[in-house]
Design a protein that fits this description.
The protein has about 300 residues and is an alpha/beta fold. It is built from 11 helices and 9 strands. The protein has helices at about 1-10, 30-35, 35-55, 70-80, 100-110, 150-155, 205-215, 220-225, 230-240, 245-250, 260-295, and strands at about 60-65, 85-90, 90-95, 130, 135-140, 145, 165-170, 195, 220. α9 (about 230-240) packs across α11. About 40% of the residues are buried. The model has no long low-confidence stretch (mean pLDDT about 95).
Length: about 300
C-alpha cells in the first residue's frame, strides 16, 4: 500500500494520498488492524444479538476461527468478554469447555502469536491443544486423533465445536457449504450454534446460510457485519482528498519524532465511533425487518 501510494506521487498523480488505503501512519494511513476497524463492526452485531435477547456476554460461549496472530482474530479477542471455548488457527485447535483463559489469550493477541504459543498449564482438565504437526493424540474425553492437520481442518464441524456464538474471523472460503452444513446439527436436529456473525468473508455459502436460518439460527452475513474496514478506508480517502499536501503532512502523518498529530488521533476516534454507530444501526434495521416480516 505504501509503495503504490508513493509510486503514484512520483508519477505526478494529483490524488496520490488517496490512491491506496490502510497505509502506514507515516503516510497518513489508518491501519485497520492497529485500530480494530473491521472487528468493531463485527462485534456490534454480536452485542446487538445479546441486547435484543437479554444475554450476558460473560456467560455466552463462542467458537472462533482465526487466531490471535491475525487482524480479526486478535482484535476479536481484545474487544470481547465472552467465554471462548475453542479457537482454530493456522497452528491447530485450542479447546476448553470451561472457557479458555482470557488473560493468556490477550497475551497472545498483543504479541500476535498463534495458539501454539499458548501456555497449556492454563487449560482445565477437560481442555486440550492439538497442533497440526501432532499425531496419535488422545483427548481428555478419550477421543483418538490420528493427525492434527485433519483435526484442525475439520474442527468447525466437530461435535466439540458447539457454542452459543460462532464468529469466524478466518478460514477458507466455503468452509461450510450445502454438503457439510448438516454436520453442524446434533442427531436430534438441533443446531450446535444459536448465533453466527460472519467476520471472515465467504466462510458460509448462501445455501448453507439458508439451511441454518431455517433451523432457527440467527445469522448475520459477512457483507453486513464486516464492513468496518470499508468504512475506515472510505473516511481515510475523504481526509486525503479534503486536505492539501501540506495540511495532510501536518495533520494526518506521523511526525519525525514518532508522535501522531492530535487531529489524526481525533479523526481516528471519530472513524471508530462512526463504524460502531453504523453497524449498530444496520443491525437494528435488519433485526426489526426480520421481526416485522418473519423472514431471515
Amino acid at each position: 500500500m505504501d509503495w503504490a501510494s508513493q509510486h503514484a506521487r512520483k508519477r505526478g498523480a494529483p490524488f496520490w494520498k488517496a490512491f491506496t488505503t490502510g497505509k502506514s501512519q507515516t503516510l497518513g494511513g489508518i491501519p485497520h488492524d492497529t485500530y480494530g476497524m473491521t472487528t468493531r463492526s463485527v462485534h456490534q452485531y454480536v452485542l446487538g444479538i445479546m441486547r435484543q435477547l437479554g444475554l450476558d456476554e460473560s456467560e455466552c460461549t463462542k467458537l472462533q476461527t482465526g487466531g490471535p496472530d491475525g487482524d480479526l482474530g486478535s482484535n476479536e479477542i481484545k474487544i470481547s468478554h465472552d467465554r471462548t471455548t475453542a479457537i482454530v488457527d493456522g497452528s491447530g485447535v485450542l479447546y476448553d469447555p470451561q472457557g479458555i483463559d482470557r488473560a493468556e489469550l490477550a497475551r497472545l493477541a498483543d504479541a500476535r502469536q498463534m495458539i501454539q504459543e499458548f501456555d497449556t498449564s492454563k487449560l482445565s482438565s477437560d481442555g486440550f491443544r492439538v497442533l497440526v504437526d501432532d499425531f496419535q493424540i488422545t483427548l481428555p474425553d478419550g477421543t483418538h486423533v490420528q493427525d492434527g492437520l485433519s483435526f484442525r481442518n475439520t474442527f468447525h464441524v466437530n461435535p466439540l465445536a458447539a457454542a452459543d456464538f460462532f464468529v469466524p474471523c478466518g478460514g477458507r472460503p466455503e468452509s461450510i457449504d450445502i454438503n457439510n452444513v448438516g454436520k453442524l446439527f446434533d442427531a436430534d436436529g438441533t443446531a450446535r450454534f444459536k448465533y453466527v456473525v460472519e467476520g471472515a468473508n465467504l466462510f458460509f455459502t448462501q445455501d448453507a446460510r439458508l439451511r441454518l436460518e431455517k433451523a432457527g439460527v440467527h445469522l448475520f452475513k459477512d457483507a453486513s457485519a464486516n464492513k468496518g474496514g470499508v468504512t475506515s478506508s472510505s473516511l481515510e480517502v475523504l481526509a486525503a482528498l479534503s486536505l492539501t499536501d501540506d495540511e495532510f503532512g501536518r495533520l494526518m502523518c506521523k511526525q519525525s519524532d514518532g508522535s501522531l498529530p492530535a487531529f489524526y488521533q481525533e479523526y481516528v476516534a471519530g472513524v471508530q465511533n462512526a463504524i460502531e454507530a453504523n453497524a449498530a444501526r444496520e443491525f437494528e434495521c435488519l433485526w426489526n425487518e426480520s421481526k416485522a416480516t418473519g423472514k431471515s
